[in-house]
Amino acid sequence: MKILEASQLADLDSYSCKEQNISSWELMERAAGLAYEEIKTRLNSATQQIKVLAGPGNNGGDGLAIAYFLAQDGWDVDVFLVNFTSSRSPDNQKNLVRLKNQAKSNIRELTEDSELPEFTSEDLVIDAIFGVGLNRSMPEFVQKLARKHNGSASQCICIDVPSGMYLDQSPGEDEAVFQSDLILTFQTPKLPFYLPDYSGVVGEVKIIDIGLSQKRLSEISSELNLVDLSLAKKLYRPRPRFSHKGTYGHAVLIGGSELMLGSVILSSKSCMHSGVGKTSVLMPSRGHSALIQHLPEAMLVENASEDFISDQDLGFNADAIGIGIGIGTSEAALSALGAWLEKADCPLVIDADALNLIAEHITLKDKKRLRTLDGQVPKKSILTPHPGELRRLVGSWKDDFEKLNLIKDFSKQFDVIVLAKDAYSLCVYQDQVFVNSTGNSGMATAGSGDVLTGLLTGLLAQGYSSLNAAVLGMFLHGLAGDLAAEEMSEESLTASDIIRYFGDSFSKLKA
Ligand SMILES: NC(=O)C1=CN([C@@H]2O[C@H](COP(=O)(O)OP(=O)(O)OC[C@H]3O[C@@H](n4cnc5c(N)ncnc54)[C@H](O)[C@@H]3O)[C@@H](O)[C@H]2O)[C@@H](O)CC1
Ligand SMILES: Nc1ncnc2c1ncn2[C@@H]1O[C@H](COP(=O)(O)OP(=O)(O)O)[C@@H](O)[C@H]1O
Ligand SMILES: [K+]
User: Which of 43, 104, 124, 463, by CA, is between 20 and 30 Å from 169?
Assistant: First the structure.
């Protein structure tokens, strides 16, 4: 699903009105009507007091229409006109006149001199002050209002976006943003919903299809996408009936060191469950018997050392290699990694300590040059850093938008795919950004990343392009975690459980 910028949304909006031969007011009426239908299903207590906060723009226009519909249906509504300017958009003005004529709700004006309303646990607040039009700090009294609301026990439904949220930047340190329980957003998801900087204000998100032009939407080029089931289905390649294990590739997992052997076993198991034809494992020899015990399907590659990975020749052609899990940061690991990066002639997934070693050997002042691993990270490799590893690779960022730019720069510089793992992982290739929609906090448990690496390596070996393997694998991994959590709770979820739900996860792609 495309994620659009404010200017693209405005374009889509006006194109749709022309295409459908409706006025902008009629579109607002439709959007507000659909938002109201959703609000209605959530109104359960007759004692609930509804407070609509409406700004003077089109977001406020939505709010005034919603207030009108609520009052029509007999709800008590207090409407606060948050008048930070004396001008109103024409559609807002039209809705205000209609609301006044209806004479069923209490309308009060709030300006910077007004006493701000109280919010209690009985209140349902509908925040329609600013939508996607916010382009500078909210006026101080609106920020005070947001802080007062956020400090109360009232419920809040935000229309389109929480007031105070920017689509293209994080809030300043002292800037207030309305905390939402529910966001009813129009037509397309908005990027900040998925970024850690806004995590404190984003509640449940419901995307409302307001019937904007599908034709125009398909024409608008967007480099930002939310990876949902329909996108994942497009990437998935069904298995031909007449096929054999050679059809699905030979994956190799290279990982482990003295005390970190379980992670490679986990990752190999994940790979074997990805649909791959064969999985071979190169690991310290002291882990060999454990691997065969836990994963008899896997094949072992001889390894010269008991404790560290080596750069032993495989003796066959690998279709994909996943490297780095549990290798540690010793000289032995560094030298084996260097050798593998140099000789690998198949796509790679690079994870964990391999990333730390690479980060250490990027010249800090001039990230253009790799020193020890000089230019050796093969192009189109998938790098899967968690936030700590990412920081070591690309440097520090002041906010999520700067982080995204650093990742894009890094991806361009080394021509690699960066899968930045997080609550909503971001898969970035050059300027293209894929935001994952699956996953849950039950996956914040040791080994979940190892499972992802195995899955990605398996998909790569099956012939998916690096970008498609990364995007599809990221989605399937989170989906398996979600399905597992549904059955067994987030708390008791372990990384091994994620693998057990790969089957159900793949089934969703075929449904
Ligand atoms: N795009 C769409 O498809 C639709 C949009 N609609 C609504 O329209 C909203 C966008 O409306 P607007 O473009 O009128 O913008 P807003 O209602 O978000 O903001 C109003 C105006 O305030 C001004 N402004 C921005 N930051 C300010 C600040 N810090 N202090 C003072 N003034 C500031 C801007 O000029 C802006 O246009 C959407 O979020 C949505 O709620 C809906 O009515 C239906 C359809
Ligand atoms: N709160 C969360 N919501 C969704 N996914 C999460 C959450 N926390 C972690 N994950 C996912 O779990 C995995 C954790 O990876 P990582 O930190 O490398 O784990 P490990 O190193 O223990 O294997 C990533 O894919 C990440 O996206
Ligand atoms: K809003």
Answer: 124
